[in-house]
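Appendix C reproduces, verbatim, an entry submitted by the partner laboratory led by Prof. M.T., so that reviewers can inspect both the input and the predicted structure.
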Amino acid sequence: MRRSRASALGSNAGSAGRKTRALPLTAIDFGRLTLGDIDHPLDAFTRQAAIDYNHLRHQRWPHTRNPHLFISSQTAHTRAPVTTGWMQPLLRGLPVTAQQLREDRILEKAAVTGADPQHLCAGFNITPETRLRYTRFIHPDPTDSDDVSGCNMETS
């Protein structure tokens, strides 16, 4: 159960690793994810995962002052984010990596928004060069000599 919550929330944050571990509790308002330039609605699964996780978090550590969304028994009484060692097992055994979840989320958003450049850059904190790779994937230019159909969608 913990695995699906973390992977859903992390992939919707458009981040992987350190950014997910440091996600502040205030970034999730149970209808939207708001963090810096990122501001987008949560799908029903992720919204429910956020509600469930927040309930579990409050039950286990009702008086914690830790500002991070994800906390553990080691971090609940500090202000530190959870460790990589806490996050890694959540994704172990899943058929995708955290990076692949992020890339899938960006591609999905690019398809829904018509690959709107400003939306992709602001929503996922990616560079214009990276955004161009996603835009070309959604709207390939037949006159472009670069074959982007099989390109690696690594983000910056």
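The CA atoms of residues 129 and 156 lie 8 Å apart. Additional entries are available on request from the coordinating office.
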